[in-house]
């Protein structure tokens, strides 16, 4: 994945963001997720989206497993900033993350994992 140079790009500690049409694209970064850096990331996303939930295409990377409190907090923040999330990764990584985050209850937003960004974008179109 190449970060575009023809449009605004936004940075947080855990991701780089840009728009592709009406889809918010995120390139995940490897730092361990904490309540603090997720809180900061939520603020960045709200500023990018004008405080409106967006359809997100995220390119996942491997990062350390967050603690339980961070996982629970992240789950509560998803519907605040996203309508739906399409995760593009190596086979197995997205499924592992979904199992980790949603072991006890289902995802609060529509989520699906892909190995192809074209398929992910097509799926997200129903949420834009």
Structure in words:
Helix 1 (35-49) packs parallel to helix 2. The chain contains four helices and six strands. It has 128 residues and is of the alpha/beta class. Helices cover 36% and strands 24% of the residues. It has one domain (10-127): STAS domain (Transcription Regulator spoIIAA), CATH 3.30.750. The chain has helices at residues 35-49, 68-81, 93-101, 117-124; strands at residues 10-11, 15-20, 23-28, 54-59, 82-88, 111-114. It is globular, with a radius of gyration of 13 Å. It has a six-stranded mixed β-sheet with strand order 1-2-3-4-5-6, with helices on both faces. Helix 3 (93-101) links the parallel strand 5 (82-88) and strand 6 (111-114). It comes from Filimonas zeae. Residues 17-127 form the DUF7793 domain. This is DUF7793 domain-containing protein. InterPro entries: DUF7793 (IPR056695).
At a glance:
With 128 residues, the chain is an alpha/beta fold. It has 4 helices and 6 strands; from the N terminus they run βββαβαβαβα.
CATH class: Alpha Beta
Roughly how many Å is the radius of gyration? Answer: 13 Å
CATH topology label: Transcription Regulator spoIIAA
**Can you write the helix and strand succession as a string?**
EEEHEHEHEH
- Compute the number of helices: 4
Number of strands: 6
Helix vs. strand class: alpha/beta
The rough form would be described as globular
Number of domains: 1
